[in-house]
């Protein structure tokens, strides 16, 4: 995936370890608090994998103002697809097209990987996010419950 040329005052590029503090702070804005060390550990694992892509949006001052994580989702029951693992835009920059640029980058990555579609899961409470995804021509195809089981012996990361 190539770096996109600036759009207004924004540039999209592949994320790197220098972006971890910004990614951590932005994740906290969305309600996913983590430490820099936790995000660093996760990012190190993800960036070594060819089936994942993480992109950031930079403002003209070089400050990271958003990020997207996309990964391959091979299933036996459907053609290869990609899933958005996270999309965050600084709340002060929302509505400026940053999220749209990040999603365009994630979609381009998915196409390069041979995916038939991109899937996004969004909490039912995030009405603004739903409107945003629909504005990008994503369709609400399913309402479901998500179940989770935590293994106490697993180390948090």
Task: Tally the beta strands.
Answer: 5
Number of domains: 1
The CATH superfamily is Gcn5-related N-acetyltransferase (GNAT)
- Within the largest sheet, what's the order of strands? 1-2-3-4-5
| Low confidence ranges | 1-6
Cα-atom radius of gyration? 16 Å
Q: What is the element string, with H for helices and E for strands?
A: EHHEEEHEH
User: Briefly, what CATH class?
Assistant: Alpha Beta
**Structural class given helices, strands, pairing?**
alpha+beta
Describe what you observe in this structure.
This protein is an alpha+beta fold. The protein has a single domain (11-135), classed as Aminopeptidase (3-Layer(aba) Sandwich), CATH 3.40.630.30. Helix content is 29%, strand content 25%. It has 4 helices and 5 strands; from the N terminus they run βααβββαβα. The chain has a 5-stranded mixed β-sheet with strand order 1-2-3-4-5. 25% of the residues are buried. The model is unreliable at 1-6 (pLDDT under 50).
């Amino acid at each position: 995936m190539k770096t996109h040329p600036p759009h207004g005052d924004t540039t999209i590029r592949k994320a790197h370890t220098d972006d971890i503090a910004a990614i951590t702070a932005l994740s906290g804005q969305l309600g996913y608090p983590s430490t820099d060390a936790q995000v660093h550990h996760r990012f190190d694992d993800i960036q070594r994998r060819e089936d994942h892509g993480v992109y950031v949006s930079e403002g003209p001052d070089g400050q990271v103002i958003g990020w997207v994580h996309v990964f391959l989702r091979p299933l036996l029951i459907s053609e290869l697809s990609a899933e958005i693992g996270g999309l965050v835009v600084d709340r002060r920059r929302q509505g400026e097209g940053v999220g749209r640029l990040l999603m365009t980058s994630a979609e381009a990555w998915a196409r390069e990987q041979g995916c038939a579609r991109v899937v996004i899961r969004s909490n039912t409470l995030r009405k603004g996010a739903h409107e945003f995804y629909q504005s990008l021509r994503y369709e609400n195809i399913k309402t479901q419950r998500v179940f989770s089981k935590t293994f106490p012996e697993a180390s948090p990361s």
